[in-house]
């Protein structure tokens, strides 16, 4: 399996009142009176189907990032070591990922698909939730371009409905065409999803950016280069061409083409700028209303509260790479793990940052994956080391 694209371009009365409040948070809203099961992140990841459809109570650490909104445990040792987190539809919370790609069967889907029936969840938007949501949405803005960077992770006790599948990989026929869907969250790659009902015991943890801030001190996210279009899709196309005719540059051009042109109404890629990226959406849980050339819809959402100007064009390059690899995988890469898919997408994204002359690019948690001060001979090894550490330690992905 190909591990990377061309790397050359390489987060008393008072006591009684508190007890009463805690008890109220453990109870479910009217209409959701199922028993709450106490469990752990690791127990869920070891057997997601066991908890499917159940109301669970989990203590874990929640982090949001570029394409991530997960609950993590303590070294669960799974290939994907986190539970995807989602708010119920209509929550209107602020926390969540910057970019999200979800797959859905199109109206002309050839495989067998039955939309799941799930018990609705109503969220308790109390002070604890508002604190939780606010902390996870705070951006880290020092240094140069910092994609998905948040100031805080949050440890908390979470109650919600657990959705789980035995196998989150996409099912394909002999030709590589998708005939069955996987799990939840970004790329439908997560085997478990927690739909949040309530949160308590919120404890913030400041993410340490001291090393990356020192490395990128004085850097600023550059504005659009002269001649670079202000339209984000056109800017992404400009960047892809600017990378050049290297393998990564040619791949980047394919990645932008994956979105289709202005008249490509039925190419199966739907783009939303500013949709409710952190919420469950009933319309994406069932059969889509549109057709697609291969019977699959690729629903791509960008969070305009966190993506601005050139950071948006980088996100477009990144998600375009995912669309290409999922839609037309190379032989042997049909079931590439999320670790490999993300490695390849970040190689293209970093190349875009270099082409647009960003002085640096940092990822959530303080991982510097590009620095213009690097010697040309060190770019490949520095990127590889940083992205491996980011994917393993921050996104909790295994090979």
Offer a concise description of the structure.
The protein is of the alpha/beta class and 399 residues long.
Tell me the structural class. Answer: alpha/beta
Largest sheet: 5 strands, mixed, barrel
Cα(first) to Cα(last) distance is 11 Å
The gyration radius over C-alpha positions equals 21 Å
Q: How are the strands of the largest sheet arranged?
A: 2-3-4-10-7
Strand content: 15-25%
- The number of helical elements comes to 10
Descriptive report:
This protein has a domain at 28-97 and 111-206. It contains 10 helices and 14 strands. The protein has helices at 13-26, 41-46, 127-137, 210-215, 232-243, 247-257, 282-285, 309-327, 338-355, 379-394, and strands spanning 36-38, 55-64, 69-72, 82-86, 99-105, 145-147, 152-164, 171-172, 178-180, 192-206, 269-273, 296-302, 360-363, 367-371. It has a 5-stranded mixed beta barrel with strand order 2-3-4-10-7. A 3-stranded mixed β-sheet has the order 5-12-11, covered by helices on one side. α9 (338-355) crosses α10. The longest helix is centred in the last third of the chain and has 19 residues, at 309-327. It is globular and about 60 Å long. Mean pLDDT is 88; it is low at 1-32.
Quick tags:
five-stranded mixed barrel; disordered N terminus; alpha/beta; globular; 22% strand; 14 strands; three-stranded mixed sheet; 399 residues
Note the topology.
Layout: H1 13-26, E1 36-38, H2 41-46, E2 55-64, E3 69-72, E4 82-86, E5 99-105, H3 127-137, E6 145-147, E7 152-164, E8 171-172, E9 178-180, E10 192-206, H4 210-215, H5 232-243, H6 247-257, E11 269-273, H7 282-285, E12 296-302, H8 309-327, H9 338-355, E13 360-363, E14 367-371, H10 379-394
Parallel strand pairs: 1-2, 4-10, 6-13, 11-12
Antiparallel strand pairs: 2-3, 2-7, 3-4, 5-12, 7-10, 8-9, 13-14
Helix pairs in contact: 5-6, 5-8, 5-9, 6-8, 6-9, 8-9, 9-10
